[in-house]
Design brief:
The protein is built from three helices and no strands. Helix 1 packs across helix 2 and helix 1 crosses helix 3. The N and C termini lie far apart (80 Å).
Length: 100
């Protein structure tokens, strides 16, 4: 009887994270921070998880988490697409002008 050999496991990739500054709508940030606290994650880990799921075309949240998000949105008054809260598609980029 011949023993089966399992295929070699690929070496784990080293993950390098960098600090970044991003601009977010104030109430959206409050919802995300509240959700991160609820899930006992850092804000960075939450954003990374959302992005990775989106890139794999997978839903990032289950029903109970979506209910919590709805509650946080009500608490912080976050209603995207409503007057006074521009969606990212409708937000203009500010042009940077050189100093001097």
């Amino acid at each position: 009887m011949t023993a089966k050999r399992s295929p070699p496991h690929p070496a784990p990739r080293e993950v390098e994270r960098i600090q970044t500054g991003v601009r977010l709508e104030k109430r959206l940030l409050k919802v995300l921070k509240g959700l991160a606290e609820y899930l006992d994650l850092s804000l960075g880990d939450l954003l990374e998880g959302i992005a990775l799921h989106a890139l794999e075309n997978k839903p990032p949240f289950k029903r109970l988490t979506l209910e919590k998000i709805a509650q946080l949105r009500r608490v912080y008054g976050f209603r995207p697409g409503r007057r006074g809260q521009p969606s990212p598609a409708r937000t203009r980029r500010r042009r940077m002008t050189p100093c001097g």
